[in-house]
Records
---
Amino acid sequence: MKSGKIMSIIVSLVMCLMAVPMNTAASKTESSSARAMGDVDDDKKIAASDAALVLSEYGRLSMGSEGIFSEDVRTAADVDKDDKITAFDASLILAYYAYNSAGGSKSIEDYVSEFISGEVTTTSTTTTTVSTTTSTTTKKKTTTTSTTTTSTTTRKKKTTTTSTTTTTTTTKKQTTTSTTTTSTTSTTTTTSTTTTSEPTTTSTTSTTTTTTSEPTTTSTTTTYADPYTVAEIKLDKYEMNLEIDGHDIAYVTMLPETAKDKREIWSSSDERVAIVDNEGYVTAIGEGKCIITVKSTANPDVFAEIVVRVTDSHKITDIKLDKYEMELEVGDNDIAYVTMLPETAKDKREIWSSSDESVAIVDNEGYVTAMGEGKCIITVKSTANPDVYEEIVVRVTDSNKITSIELSKTEITITVGGHDIAYVTMYPETAQDKSEIWSSSDESIAIVDSEGYITGIGVGECIITVRSAAYPDVKARIIVEVIE
């Protein structure tokens, strides 16, 4: 505000100096008596000519020339008491001159003191400017909005000054964004009316000022509490989609740039999915998803994360067989040919198994051997992906199996010590093992040898049974009665 006042006064000073003739008598370098503050020409009054003399002296000094003021003249000219002659001294003298001309009663000493402290109201044409400032800092998360409207009216000068300032402050991670917006065109109209009773005089002055601004300017500034400690980590990527054995790297920026220790610590949430080295070089290991984290070594609370998704386009997803059923005879063999999909799969190894090896067995190549009658399931799985499998239903029959036994006689009557024989036929005729097993239910009545030769031992009745040696469940019997 003070610099705005000074500039306004200096502009007015220059305009006044153009209209005020120089008092050459007041330019003398010597004075017979001490001058009052501001009365440079020693004419016992403060006027625009005093300001003009000060400004001229300031110009000489600024150009490197020697000043022409004597000690007492310099003392009178140095109204702000800073031990040097400047344009500000001239502006203060001119301001006091205007104040005094308007009927002000203060001494120049009091006026200057109040002016410097900001207590003096000056007259100026003001163009309204709306300024918006946005400041963002992470931790405090505070939003403050303030609107200040100031309207000042000075009765004597009939001047109205209006200024509106809107300030919005949002605190979020010590980042400050400042946006200054100036209306493209602003028009200010100041009307000053003075009315005097005797004689009746009305004077109206209307001044219109149009200001065209420069285009809107936006600036962003990020500040950090400690410029030498890492406060933020930025990555060039926050996601990675990789194939197994694929690689990628994330480039890191430690902020602020002035931070001294920018070392990094890298880690993986699941090293079965992906691993990372000390340089941020990521390697995909297996299917899945994990988080790669990078932290500041000096400030571990500051970190950033990368989501890594790993897929396997070479993974076995399906198995096709050339057959899904087998009908075999005991002792026969068969094989199922396997196709692993996709064709681009790298690991096409197989795992084979049988649900019942008493029926059929299978080797590592899918070669099936029928062992015995019955039904079982042969399964083939992907070694790399055991969740993918296929099954073969195997039914085993035995055309050589004894299914029935037929006897030449089913009843025999013999005497004690007598003999008889029953002839056996085993079916099917193609059966290879037709060996027999004979037995008697009561050997005190009758006995039988391995050829089916029966001998009566004692009076009574018993059962002679013949079975298939290969299939004992297949049998036939003879009722034997022994008499005296």
---
Amino acid sequence: MAATPDLYVKEVRTSLRNNSGAFGYSVMITCSLAMLSAQHSSPNPLQIMLFALGAVLSFLVVEAVATNVFRRSLGGEEKTKVVALGSSIGVLSVGVALGATAAAGAWLPVTAAWLVGSFAASTTYLLLNAVEMAIARRVEETRRLA
């Protein structure tokens, strides 16, 4: 049986809902790796591991703060419209995070830049993405009132 256009559109929405947050982060962290590579040439294996460690540590720190040292839930009841709009305005969080990477690459010794650059980029992205989601929530609340 052939898929109908309505079904296809529904599945595109599902794909967007399930991937929107990861998409922005993936673009940002990939470009951060490219930024540091452009500034310092290709990383060696230790620098790659430090880059990964910095990105992972940023999630640890932000999640620890957001959950009161893992004693509260992260929630997850955000409305789809808010997530869609918040993700759509992700250019701010991605752009500023890349700036944080570039700054680390410019100001720190090479090996330290791989750790700090990914940590700074990831932390910046997470915190600014929260601002974007708050803006999206306000827009959605305003739409409902109109």
---
Amino acid sequence: MASTKVVAPLLALTLLLFAVAAHGCEPNCSGGGPVIPTPTTPSYDRHGHCPIDALKLRVCANVLNGLVGVKIGAGPNECCSLLQGIADLDAAVCLCTAVKANVLGINLNLPVDLSLILNKCSKIYPSGFTC
């Protein structure tokens, strides 16, 4: 009989310790209110990138027709359809890459001519962007 009187409280104490260890002091911890995780800001490339093959941007040379006296490639709709769906910064990077590789076949006055192409395609030349 004596052994059951010792085992019962010991078993109850063990169960109590396991319960405390499993649940800790939640939700009544003495460290203040509940901890709210701060959302992380999404990381992105602040320099932009070009998801378009630079050779395909040859069609963008004709957007400048009449402005710099050039008629090369297809019409402006083909150029704008290439730039459609990408961010303004990425579009500027694509055109800059095409100009540096001389894909357009003309010498451009940067950034004025880049902004003309971007404006024609309803894009905005990013402030602070340098080609």
---
Amino acid sequence: MLNFIKSFVSFFPISRRDTHVGVILYTRRAIPIFRFNKYYTRAAILRAIENLRYPRGGTYIGKALSFARRYLYPGRPASNRKRVTVVLTDGISQDRVSGPARRLRVAGCEIFVLGIGRGYRISQLRQIATDNNHIFTASFRSLGKVIQKIKSKACQKPVPTPSKHCSCKDQYFQLKKVYVQFNFLACLHTKIQVFVLTSVRLPSTMAVYPFDRVRAGRDISRGRNPSARIVGVKYGQGPDGRTDGSTEFYGRPNSYVEIPNRGKLDARYSITFLIWVYHNGRKGPIVNYNPNGYGVHLWMTSYRQLFLRFMHRDGRTTRPLRSNRLKYRAWNYVGATYDERSGIATLWLNSQPVARRRLGRVRLSTNYPIRLGAIRRSRNYFKGRIFCLQLYSVALTRKQIFEAKRKCFLPVPKPTTPVTKPTTPPPRVCKARIDLGFLIDGSRRTGSVTFRRIIEYVKEMVRRFDVQRSQTRVALTLFASSQRLVFRFGKSYSRAQVYRELKKLSLLRGRRRNTARALMYVKRHMFRGKPTCGRRRVLVLVTARETRDNVVRPARILHAAGIEVYTVGLGRVSVRYLRKIATDRFHVFVKNARSLLTIVRTIKDRMCHSPGKTS
């Protein structure tokens, strides 16, 4: 971000008559660096910005705004001089900002706000900015794209005699812990394209072990530590998409990785270790110094709970850090840091701090070999996949942890075999958020041939939806005189899972059908609870015969619960009977079993594009 500030300053001519720049550094308190009358050349200002170092501490924008009003804006503004403040932040201020921002605006200052990344709060940005048109957002990699927007907005009021450059006087600029101020006098409307590289420098690593098939247990850092001993594991898909891009543990005592430690992996004072984790078991060690006991260690203590403890060198324990935010059976970017200067330990998940604790001075127990997957002292073993263990002898910042995220990634190899074009184009996939339930006639009277055709119909329907946890979820129930819930919405997160369950289906024992009872069973066991906001509920009933039980009341209960009901009758099932169950007449279909697949596209299009109807 310092590169961003320097590029921004370079847009304006710096002199006694034109742009003035002042800088304030802040954490819990504001630290004055230089006023507007300190430097009058661009080179001197850029050198001063280059020498800035971020101090540690919290984010107190309110205090910084109040100090800036006293330090940089004493008295009334000079004639023909515009005051502009640009506030950059990547986090949430820990104090109130509305009052200091209002007083700064009363002092004649126009305030811009730039929120970076995802850690800011938009409501807080609105309290700081002059209005909504003065709010900008960007990622860390795209900071350079907003320079022209802010510059053009700040230079909107030219004087009658504009110069060839953007002649600006006193503008104010804040970067989380950095304030720079300019005031604009005049600006010609010229378009300038600027590209800014805002990369973060990473410190040297103690070790980097990718743990994939290509590099196996080798250390790819400059330290060239001994290769890890890999026992009883296999290779699986990694977070970068490669087929053999990670090491998979079986959750057994003879499935582990051990890294020798000849002194180069002994952090002792401060440490950061980062690793990609795909958890598929219950409990077990991810990273554990000391194969025979407990040094500094990171464990899984339940399906989603991370457990981090920094041990003293003499065996004394510290208070652990825990987090229940890990995603089960998914890739997670996990990190742990301890800083000796502040005494603070932090647990990171996907580049965000999820637990923090002040431990004081700790001499870290990192003078042992490292075990991953299993240790001799415990009967709990890690089951899942890991990728790219990185070790640093310093505590990394959030931006550095984010920068190291893709350190071990390799490009996914392209397939060597030519891809043959299908003879028929694949169907258009519906990406709507739908809970799609099927209620299938599974009585003996249906017959095995008709039942197989119904299953093929369900497969074809599922093929036309984007089946995953965040899009379409599928559930299925068979009914005859009794009911059987084959799988719920929470168990069908892919088409492959649904297809595997459909292959196992067979007819139920009973020959009689009870449709009314089946509809009530679906309401209680398939569509439980209240509907989720933004997710539609759809039920498809496929039956081969009419029943004499009263289906009107159960159907009304389903409609009242916000469930859209389609009915598909096979053979001689009357439309009148199906109409009693369906949402309306446009949700009723009658076909013979052989032509059942011809209505798949019609029903799919109505589900995907219709807003749905509820009674």
